[in-house]
Amino acid sequence: MPGCRHEAVESLRAQIARIEQRPALSEAASRQRRLSGPFALPGGLLHEVFTDERRNGGAALGFALAQARVLAGPERPALLFVQLRREAQDMGLPYGVGLKSFGIDPDALVLTRVESIVEFLWAIEEAVSCRAVAAVLADIANAPGALDFTASRRLSLRAQAAGTSVFLTRYGKGREASAARLRWRVAPALSGAVAFDARAPGAPRWRVVLEKGRLPAGRAGTEFFLDWTENGFVVVDSSTHEASPEAGRAPSPRAVPAALGDRLPQAG
Questions:
Q1: Which of 67, 132, 190, 200 maximizes the CB count within 10 A of its CB?
Q2: Is residue 25 part of a domain?
Q3: pTM of the entire predicted model
Q4: Backbone angles phi, psi at 66, to 5 degrees
Q5: How many domains does the chain have?
Q6: Contact 133, 163 (CB under 8 A)
Q7: What is the pLDDT of residue 243?
Q8: What confidence tens digit (pLDDT) does each residue in 17-51 have?
């Protein structure tokens, strides 16, 4: 009968809809659990991470990697690092052993080098569309004309639609119009004190200024000192440089000395 067939079709549609939604719901729940830290941000955003000097590129890349690491999970395990081939010699690459000591799986980081800025933008867009990618880290040393407001707007819309964050790490004091949701200025800061030896260097610390955009409700201010822990960033009191009470969790262990390449002996 027509009525029975209609009900059967509607029931089948409902079952298909539940099947299609189940992975997305599972992914959303898993991501929400991972975003419980005091300085965690949701996925699907275009970030600009600036540092004034290239010598501080490690701080900018470390900030972007730390944010991306929180977004990664079983459903989205991969992180993509994109770089122009002609800039790679000057800027270098993330070091796998160092990443591992801070809780980032080097096997999950896909390194990509492209020839032109057109391929650079294309690679970002294609990676954003891949559901296995949690975040794209795009390192660009100069300010090419192709990376204009229109291009950033396209990247922002793609990131929002796919739920995949994009971190553009950039250098210098100049700023162009951009559709990035958040723009950060990052620099290394004096590390915190070490127990029993006030003169010894402590764990890495970042000085971060939010130049554009707003953080989620409950996080006021535009300038922060951040420490890295096993659960993400924690905010350090700028007046005392001590971790705020909301941190609540012990920092991750100190990085172990990295082995030299090709199994060369380390100088003692």
A1: 67
A2: no
A3: 0.75
A4: -65, -40
A5: 1
A6: no
A7: 52
A8: 554 444 443 444 444 434 444 466 888 999 999 99
Instruction: Please indicate, yes or no, if residue 179 is contained in any of the structural domains.
Output: yes
User: Which range, of 79-93, 124-138, 210-224, 254-268, averages the lowest pLDDT?
Assistant: 254-268
Report whether pLDDT(190) > 50: yes
CA angle 243/245/251 to nearest 5° reads: 50
pLDDT at 244 over 60: no
Q: What tokens does 28 get? A: 């959303």
Q: Supply the range of the domain harboring residue 103.
A: 37-247
For residue 174, tell me if it sits in a domain.
yes
Residue with tokens 């793609």: 158
Q: What is the CATH number of the domain that holds 92?
A: 3.40.50.300
Which tokens go with 142?
């100069």
> Which residues, at least 6 apart from 135, have a Cβ–Cβ distance to it below 8 Å?
43, 67, 68, 71, 72, 79, 80, 164, 165, 166, 167
Only one residue has tokens 């100049």, namely 174
Phi-psi region of 229 (alpha: psi -120 to 50; beta: other; left: phi over 0): beta
Q: What is the DSSP letter of 120?
A: H
Q: What pLDDT shows up at residue 204? A: 82
